[in-house]
Amino acid sequence: MQKARREVAEKIKQVDIVFEVVDARSPESSRNPMLLEMLQQKPIISILNKADLADSARTKAWVAAYQAEGREAIAIDAQHAKRLQQLPQMAEKVLAEKLARKRARGIRNPHVRAMCIGIPNVGKSTILNRLVQKNIAITGNRPGVTKNQQWLKASGNLELLDTPGILWPKFDDQEIGMKLALTGAIADKVFTADEVALWGVGYFQKNYAEVLRKHYGLTDEQMQSRPADIVQLLTKKFAYGEEFDRTAVRFINDVRKGELGRYTLEVPEDRA
Ligand code: G4P
């Protein structure tokens, strides 16, 4: 952790702006709050990636909440990344004063140097590849692997560091861990499928009841049951005998594949 932290801090020194990549399905839980301490006053744009899988109303609410706090934010789907092309302009806008000073000193087309930073699996490499419109083999995409760094040209005057900065997922809080596990942001061995599925069923019961009911053909009465009872009911429905674990894994996979529709596991108000 210390080494990863030092590496990221070292890279941040070299850039004008940081692109923080988070998962739109859990924008707060998929960020490492230590990044803010490591910024050395560099500005940041938060990229809420995988917006194609997230609840669009909640994504809008998150972007608005971040912007209201004075932080630039954009929601994208890196796999079909039209909106990503707004990033160079956004970065220039955030850095307007600094760039104006450079132009006043006679630098005609000052470049903007940026890097993507985030926890594993949020889409940093995909975004980087899209921005530079290449399919570079991102080597050294692990903390602790050093190599000669290169700057890759994106559109406009934007240049990106060829390796993303990797932070570790932070889940001191059990609920954050559950969100990261349900979206697949952390390895399946960290929590049991059972506990993740129970948490997930509970969350969907409260927040996305209709899709849960419809997808698994549950009655209104069954929907009022405790999450553990719902898992039991489903196990029976799937004819899995006593294999509750199998049901848990199936539920988690259904959620991750988007079979239960688009979802977001937190709202800005949760932070209060
Ligand atoms: P990382 O560098 O932050 O570790 O993440 P990476 O780009 O490797 O992306 C992790 C996984 O997330 C990849 O899937 C990638 O295709 C997927 N992904 C990235 N951006 C988006 C997005 O906006 N929407 C969706 N739905 N998926 C996204 P994978 O299954 O691990 O690999 P692959 O099957 O794409 O090769």
UniProtKB/TrEMBL annotation:
BP GO annotations: translation
InterPro entries: G_CP_dom (IPR030378), GTP-bd (IPR006073), GTP-bd_ortho_bundle_sf (IPR023179), GTP-bd_ribosome_bgen (IPR019991), GTPase_MTG1 (IPR016478), P-loop_NTPase (IPR027417)
Keywords: Cytoplasm, GTP-binding, Nucleotide-binding
Localization per record: Cytoplasm
A GO-annotated cellular component: cytoplasm
Residue ranges annotated for the CP-type G domain, each copy included: 1-169
Main localisation: cytoplasm
Keyword Kinase: no
PROSITE patterns: G_CP
Positions with a binding annotation for GTP: N49, K50, A51, D52, N121, V122, G123, K124, S125, T126, G165
UniProt keyword Cytoplasm, yes or no: yes
Stated role: Required for a late step of 50S ribosomal subunit assembly. Has GTPase activity.
Family indicated by similarity: Belongs to the TRAFAC class YlqF/YawG GTPase family. MTG1 subfamily.
Name this protein carries in UniProt: Ribosome biogenesis GTPase A
Annotated organism of origin: Lacticaseibacillus sharpeae JCM 1186 = DSM 20505
